[in-house]
Amino acid sequence: MNDFSQLLRDKKEQIVNQWIESVRHDEAIGTAKELTYKGVRNNLPRILEAIASMLTQSQEQDIQELVRSGLEHGVLRAQQGYDPEEVAREYRLARETIVSMIQEDLRNASADEVIRVIRLIDAAMDEVIGRCFKSYTEERMREFKDLQMQLKLTNQELTRLVRASKENIANLAHELKTPLTSIIGYSDLFLRQQRNIHVSTDSVPNVEHIEKVLRSGRQLLHLINDALEISRYEAGQMPLHPSVTNVRVLIHNSVEMVESVANVKNLEIELNCDRAPDEVLTDPLRLQQIVINLLSNAVRYTEKGSIQLTCKTLSDTEWSIAIADTGIGIDEEDLKHIFDPYFRVRTNNNTYVPNSTGLGLAIVSRLVTLLQGKIEVTSQINAGSTFTVIFPLEILV
Ligand code: ADP
Fold first, then answer.
1. Which of these, 108, 191, 369, 384, is most buried using a 10 Å CB contact count?
2. How far is the CA of 355 from the centre of ligand 1 (A)?
């Protein structure tokens, strides 16, 4: 027995070298190809030394060195980026190398001795592999925990940044609103005064200029208000004020608000509220915002034909408003994006419809969610679109 132990020691360098060579050339151990010779060698001689010492004693005794070298090997291979199959393969090659190196000498030994030596080598290998995988797994878990912690911190930082920038945008918009409101107010006043006094031909261009300022100012204010509305919703600062609401009155008021624009385009708004619920429990202001937005879009994107608003009770718990137009329609691809903030479909000459911000439907969809409802849309290019909102008869407070 001592002979085999000594044999392993004598051939240690040879075995280690062959082991390293086979590890470095093995197709199944890709990671080793990225390491230096030293990196692969590392504590392999120690493992071999520990196996040799096990052959001199009974396998239960003094396996401390084997345990230690197995544990260290596991940590090292984990740090080097080996995957578990590569570690297992490395040990398989070790076993093959050791046996092939002592093969000649085993041939001259008795059968009992051969069995004993092979068993001891197997036991030593099993022990070292077991320890190696234990520390390998622990090291991997430690890395995962570190990574998880880093990801958590990064995520927190990102959330903080997003929140900070949202607040910044909201603050900026607030700051912009005040001077804008005053620009609009004063230019409005100026215009009215100009119209009242006798206007010389020279002053007409001035009026045109101020009208431009007024138009741009109004559009900017509209954009800021919409952006603020979205950021308020995202920040969870859009409270619900539910009250018992007369749906028919609310719809009539909403229609009145868009009627003048529809009249200019000769579009009739037809109402069908025969089956509408008499009363619902909802937030009337938010509901009106939804209806006005959908009606304005129907008018804006329709040149001829009509707009139909149908309101009806669907069941004991639900009711709906459908707004159908005979306008330009929306193609299938664009339909997927119309509720995204700032999304607008370009017109035929590659421009946008004046006064559009791409925020209207984004706000509508958020308001619909706030009112515990859902929104559906069907559309056909050059035939028209129908937006349907479905709400509970009583929102949960
Ligand atoms: P905006 O109308 O201010 O551009 P919206 O968010 O309200 O923003 O609408 C997004 C896009 O969806 C619009 O640019 C338009 O292309 C399309 N759209 C909305 N409503 C209609 C409609 N009734 N008919 C055709 N297209 C519509």
1. 384
2. 11
